[in-house]
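User: Can you model how magnesium ion sits in this protein?
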Amino acid sequence: MTVASFIRRKKAPDPHVRLPMPPAIADDEEQRYRPIDRVLLKRVLGLLAPFKGQYTLGVFLGVCMTILDMLSPKFMQWMIDYGVGYQKGALPGHPTHAGATRHVLMIIGTWALCIGGAIVFQRFTILVMTAAGERVQFSLRRRLFGHLQRLSMSYYDKTKLGRIISRCTSDVNSLREINVWGLHVICSNLLMMLIAAVMLATTTDWRLFVSVAWLGGVLVFANRVYLRKAASMWQTVREGWTRVSTNMAENITGMRVVTAFNRQMPNLGVFNRLQQNNTDNNVTMSRVNGVYQPVLDLVRFVGKIIILTYGGYLIVSGRFPPGKGVGAVVAASLYWDWFMNPITTFGQWYNMLMQAMAGAERVFSLLDLQPEVQDEAEAKPLPRIVGNVTFEHVTFGYAPGRPVLHDVNFEARPGQTIALVGATGSGKSSIISLIARFYQPQEGRVLVDGQDIRTVTCDSLHRQMGLVLQVNYLFTGTVIENIRYARAGASDEEVQAAARAIGAHDMILTLKDGYQTDVGERGANMSLGQRQLICFARAFLADPRIFMLDEATSAVDTATELMVQNSLEKLLAGRTTFIVAHRLSTIMRADCILVIDQGRVIERGTHRELLAKGGKYAHLYEQFVRHVE
Ligand SMILES: Nc1ncnc2c1ncn2[C@@H]1O[C@H](COP(=O)(O)OP(=O)(O)OP(=O)(O)O)[C@@H](O)[C@H]1O
Ligand SMILES: [Mg+2]
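Assistant: Here's the modeled complex, given as C-alpha cells:
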C-alpha cells in the first residue's frame, strides 16, 4: 500500500460523513431543504455557545491532528530525496552506509511519532466533539420537551401527534451531525486546503502549484452546477421517501381496517407505485452523482498527471531548485490529494447542512410559539382553595368567532356537586376545560374563591385540582406508578390507602402482579372499569380541592358501575365537584344540575326542582325512565 493510498483511505471519504438517512417517523409535512440563512445559522451556533470551551478544545485537537497528518508527504519527500542523493553520492558530507541508514531510521521514527500523535489527537477530537455535540442535542431536546409541556391545549388541538414527535426526533436529529462535527469539519477542511496549497506553493516548487491552480476554477464551476442540480434532486428524493413511509405507517396503523375491507392488494398497488417513484428518484439522483464524482476524480487525476509530468520535466531539465528532487514531486502530488479531499466530501456536507437548516427552522419555530394560556406577570400563587367556583358571563370558542359556550353563568359553593347534563357536543367538556384553565374564555371570567384564575399561577391552580377525563389515560408502567403519578413522593402505603379508600384495592390484588402489574401502553392491558378505578385512586391520592370528572358515556357492567359509584362518593366527599354525568344515580345526588344545550345553560336546579319545572330535564328524565322500563 502506498502512502498516498494510505492517506486517502484514511481521509476520503471522511469517516464521519454519512449519507442522509430517511426520517425515522413519517411527517405529514414534506421534508424540506432550506438554503443556508445567516439568521438561522446564527441561532444554530447559539445552541453551541454554552459549550464553547469544549468546542474550542475539540477544534484545537482536530487542528493538531490535521497538521501532524499533513506532515506525511514531507517525510516522504525527505526519505526519497535522501535516498536518491545517497545513491548518487550527492549528499553533503558523503555519509557512510550505516550513517545513511541511521538518518533514514530517524526520519521514519519521527514520522511514526507524528502519525502516532495524530491518532491520539484524533481519538480525543472524537471524544470531545461527540461529548459536546451530544450535550447540545440533549439540551435542545430538553428545551423542546419543556416547551411542549408549557404549550396550551389549543396547540395540541391543532397539531398532529406525528408532527410534534418528528420535531423532537428527526428534526433534532438532523442537527446532530452539524452539532457534533460541523465546526471540526469546517475548520479542519479549510486548514487542510490551506496547508495543502501553501505546501504545494512553497515547500515543493511554486511552479507545480501554478500548474494545477487553474483546476481550482474548474472545481468551483463543477460544484456550482452540481449543487444547483443536486439540491432539487435531494428534495425530490426525500419527498418521495416521505410519501412511502407515510403510506406505510398509515396502513400498518390501520391494519384492522385494511384486513376487514380486504384492501391488501389495492394497498400493495399504491405502495408499489410510490416505491417505484422513490426508486426512480434515487436512480436519477445517482445519475447526477454519477457525473459529479467522475468529474472530481478526473480533476484529481489531471492534477496529479500534471504535477508528475511537469515535475518530472523540471527535474530532467535541471530547473528544479537544488536540494529538491523526485521526493518533492511525490510530495506535491500527495498534497494535491489533500487539497482535493475536502472538495470530494463537500457535496455530502452541504446536503447535510441544508437538512439541518430545515430541521432547525422547524425546531425554532416550535420553540418560538408562545403558549396561549400564560401566567400574567403579576400572577400570584393561589392559597389553599376553599372551593368556590364561579362562571361570569363566559363565552368561549376553540376557533375565533365560533363560540361553543355562550354567556355561561353559575356558581358552585364549597363542597357542592354540580352535574353537567346535555346532549353530545353541547359544551360540557368545554366547561370543565375552562375550569382547569386549559383554555382561556374570550369573554367573561372564571373565578375560584373570588379570584379570576388568570391572575393566579397555573401551577398553584393545577396542584389543587383533580381531573378524571372522558378518555382515561394511563401511562406505560405499573399500576402503582400510575397511581403515584398524582404525587411523586407518596409512599407505597399511601398509594394503597388511596386505592383502599375508593375501593380499588381488591380489584388491583386480583390482577396478575397486583400493584406491580404492567398496565400496557395507554393502559391497554386493563378493562375500562379497571382503568377508571385506577384513575380515581390517582385523583384521590392527589387530594384535590376541586374535582372534575368527565364521565365516559360507554357503559360498564353493573358490578363495575356499582363499584365506581361507591368509590365516587368517597372521592367527592368535602370537595367541590363538577361531573359530566350520564348515570342517573350521580345526577340525582347532585346539589345542582346544569342542563346545557348548544353552549347555553338552559335549566338549573336539583333533580326535584327540575322535574317539577317540567322542562328539558324533565323530558330527558322521562325518556330515560321509559327506556329503562
Ligand atoms: N378541541 C376542540 N377544537 C375545536 N372544537 C372543539 C374542540 N373540542 C370540542 N369542540 C367543539 O365544541 C363543542 C362542544 O364540545 P364539548 O366537547 O364541550 O361537548 P360535550 O358536551 O363534552 O360532548 P360529549 O358529551 O360528546 O363529550 C362541540 O361542537 C365540539 O365540536
Ligand atoms: Mg365531553
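A couple of observations from the model: The domain at 48-203 is CATH 1.20.1560.10 (ABC transporter transmembrane region fold). DSSP finds 23 helices and ten strands in the chain.
User: Helpful, thanks.
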